[in-house]
Amino acid sequence: MEKRSRSFYVLAAFFALFLVFLYGPTITIAILSFQGPQGGLTFPMRGVSLHWFHDLFQQQAVGDIWGSFGRSLVLGLMVMATTVVVSVMGGLAFRKRFPGSGVIFYLIVTSLVIPSILISLGVGLIFSQSGLTVHWSTSGFGSQLTWTLPFGLLIMFAVFNRFDKSYEEAARDQGASAWQTVRHVVLPIIAPMLIGVALFGFTLSYDEFARTLLTAGSYNTLPLEIYGMTTNVTTPVIFALGTLTTAFSFLIIAIFLGVVLVLRKRQAKLGSDAGQGMM
């Protein structure tokens, strides 16, 4: 066997420390959420039980956990759907140069580098000064799109830059209209990438704090609710909430990955069937 160099072990140790730094806090919270009824917010643990998970589903003295979870879920779905639709339309539009395309591109990228709290403040001020209600489904929705749309558009730019236009040309040669080409050729091919954009849109919205802080109005989303609970809740119930929300996030990722695998298998099957039909 080839002897491994010292640099390999240094890099391996660095990577291991990086993983500990990345996942250590989440793992610690997960462990502490299984404290016994007399447990606190720190080690050592006082027993092991599901007491705090059960307590989480009871009426809390402060906060509206499940209401805020529902709002974050609905908002995430709204942002996800809008991000996918606008990103696809933007990706198709930017395949050709048009007047002002450069300016629009840099404006899109600029929203990523402006501090999130300033975006939240600006959107909140615009709504309040315009006499519009500051609400998580309006101003909060708009402020979160300034975060998710640039990612979705950048992904679509990369996808369409590598897209083989011969598929579209073949569809048009067969008499397909522009809409039929997009619907029956382009969208099925880029479907796995659309799932990625949807995942980006939902997850970025679901855990967004700064851009929602001044735009959610009177009703908190889940990140805002958790932040508020940190100043009032002094029991491991908050750790139980963190564990469940983390598990929910992994569940969403697993669902999206499952959809991608199904789409890839379907595309592979269609490709093999088409190849056999040509023989």
From TrEMBL:
Keywords: Cell membrane, Membrane, Transmembrane, Transmembrane helix, Transport. It comes from the Bacteria. One of its GO terms (biological process) is transmembrane transport. The chain crosses the membrane at residues 73-94, 103-127, 147-164, 185-206, 237-263. The keyword Transport applies. Residues 69-263 form the ABC transmembrane type-1 domain. GO terms for cellular component: plasma membrane. InterPro entries: Bact_Polyamine_Transport, MetI-like, MetI-like_sf. It is found in: Cell membrane. It is a multi-pass membrane protein. PROSITE patterns: ABC_TM1. CDD domains: TM_PBP2. Belongs to the binding-protein-dependent transport system permease family. CysTW subfamily. This is ABC transporter permease. It comes from Roseibium aggregatum.
